[in-house]
Amino acid sequence: MTSTLKGITLKGSAELVAEFFSFGINSILYQRGIYPPETFSRVTQYDMSLQLTTDTQLKNYLTNVVSQLKEWLFDCTVQKLVLVITCLETNEVLERWQFDIECECDKSAKEISAPREKSIKSIQDEIRSVIRQITATVTFLPLLESSCAFDLLVYTDKDLEVPDKWEESGPQIIDQSEENTMGTLEIDYN
């Protein structure tokens, strides 16, 4: 059985959304067993225990992706991020974790800071809720019985120049998949 997890919608500031992605991606990689559990360490963030990779190569890769993503979020040129899990042997797409992003910024006025409309506590509550949904979703997904790899797909504006070390790819859709809709994280842009 393969699954597409769809419908986590993120609205908000580039910094907070990028930080969420870092923790969310680490959480999925840990909980789905893409990397061994001993390559993660427990940290406390958003008043909850989360796992972050200690694998140097993975850490560098995620730092580079999240850093670029933050730029694109700030420029309001990204629409979604998809974490794709594939079977190493067959290259079959097993899971697609899709995070839809709604940028609510005026591209011509991004230098001007709007007043914050939500408290940090409220934002952290929403982030906690989405990460808990990721954790809960893992409980009903089938075990990944083969060695797996992952890829991150970032959907941007069509005219955006792709960085040198990045490459374009197809959507890596799952045929006859089941979709599970999760919640929304709204962080006011500032």
From TrEMBL:
Q: Which UniProt keywords apply?
A: Cell cycle, Cell division, Mitosis, Nucleus
Q: Does the keyword Transcription apply?
A: no
The organism's place on the tree of life at top rank: Eukaryota
Q: Which Pfam families match?
A: HORMA
User: What is the first-listed, main subcellular location in coarse terms?
Assistant: nucleus
Q: Which residues form the HORMA domain?
A: 11-190
What GO terms fall under cellular component here?
kinetochore; mitotic spindle assembly checkpoint MAD1-MAD2 complex; nucleoplasm
Query: What GO biological process terms does the UniProt entry carry, in alphabetical order?
Result: cell division; mitotic spindle assembly checkpoint signaling
Q: Where in the cell is it found?
A: Nucleus
Q: Which InterPro entries match?
A: HORMA_dom, HORMA_dom_sf, Mad2-like
User: What protein family is recorded?
Assistant: Belongs to the MAD2 family.
* Name by which UniProt lists this protein: Mitotic spindle assembly checkpoint protein MAD2A
Q: What organism is the protein native to?
A: Coregonus suidteri
